Amino acid sequence: MPELPEVETTRRGIAPHVEGREVVEVVVRQPRLRVPVPADLVDRLVGARLGPLGRRAKYLLVPVEGDEPGTLLWHLGMSGSLRIARLGELPRKHDHLDLVLDDGGILRYHDPRRFGFVDWLAGSVEADRRLARLGPEPLSESFDGERLYRLSRGRRLAVKPFVMDSAVVVGVGNIYAAEALFLAGIDPRRSAGRVSLARYLRLAAAVKEVLAAAITQGGTTLRDFVGGTGEPGYFKQRLNVYGRHGEACRRCGGELRLVTLGQRASVFCTRCQT
Ligand SMILES: [Zn+2]
């Protein structure tokens, strides 16, 4: 599933091919995505120019300039991907939507499970109900250990689901929460309200570290966004705990344990994480 680093990698991969280009044709092969493709999307896009791509949490934001400006709010869902195809390159199965650009490039959306969507926002992006209640970006200065400490006082929820709550901070999916808690040495079962400030400072730093590493690693796959027939390179990080239950902890050699927290599998080391 595309997580924040994959969406950021997608943004960086397609931006040079999309920004400033005019849309000359829109091909909708399958309008039934999680949110149906807006009926007027073709009219809104043809002849319009695309602005600098943004991202908020796992939403890709594509500004559309022109008489009636707006923004495409694009979500990759469970299995969606965007890449740049060349004119004449035949669509594959599950290539649901094409934006044909004035230089012959095609921004092509592929999504086998169709949990992703593209929607049109006419007004302010931040006012959209899907974005308005989101917490800060994990790599921004507004996210830090003090915020985690402040928001967690009195909370009995386990620290892992707490840090995965998008109102607290966005983009900390299951993999990144598990890895960051390991790096910070915090037991994922511990009540959020009983984690000290010193530990939250370590946790925030660890969240930033694992996400930044994933984005850096994704940078090696940027060329995969253009041409070729494969999927854009979603990448596998070297993981310390996620998916490794029953295996040995890389730090102490003890056996990694699996528990379920907030309906999510959570792997951790009982010796290194307290
Ligand atoms: Zn260990």
Molecular structure report:
By secondary structure, the chain is α+β, with helices and mostly antiparallel strands. Helix content is 26%, strand content 21%. It is built from seven helices and eleven strands. It has helices spanning 4-18, 41-45, 129-132, 145-152, 159-163, 174-184, 197-218, and strands spanning 23-28, 49-50, 54-56, 59-65, 70-75, 81-86, 95-101, 105-110, 117-121, 257-261, 264-268. Helix 1 (4-18) packs across helix 7 (197-218), helix 4 (145-152) packs across helix 7 and helix 6 packs across helix 7 (197-218). The longest helix has 22 residues, at 197-218. The radius of gyration is 20 Å and the shape is elongated. The mean pLDDT is 93. Zinc ion is lined by residues 249, 251-252, 254, 269, 271-272.
In short:
The chain is 26% helix and 21% strand. The protein contains seven helices and eleven strands. A hairpin with a 2-residue loop joins β3 and β4.
Question: Layout of helices and strands, plus pairs?
Answer:
Elements: H1 4-18, E1 23-28, H2 41-45, E2 49-50, E3 54-56, E4 59-65, E5 70-75, E6 81-86, E7 95-101, E8 105-110, E9 117-121, H3 129-132, H4 145-152, H5 159-163, H6 174-184, H7 197-218, E10 257-261, E11 264-268
Antiparallel strand pairs: 1-7, 2-4, 3-4, 4-5, 5-9, 6-8, 7-8, 10-11
The structure holds zinc ion.
Zinc ion binds near residues 251, 254 and 271.
The stretches of 5 or more residues where confidence is low (pLDDT under 50) are: none
Number of strands: 11
Calculate Rg over CA atoms: 20 Å
Q: List SSEs in N-to-C order.
A: HEHEEEEEEEEHHHHHEE
Q: With helices defined by DSSP (H or I, 4 residues minimum), what is the helix count? A: 7
Strand coverage percent = 15-25%
Biggest sheet record: 5 strands, antiparallel
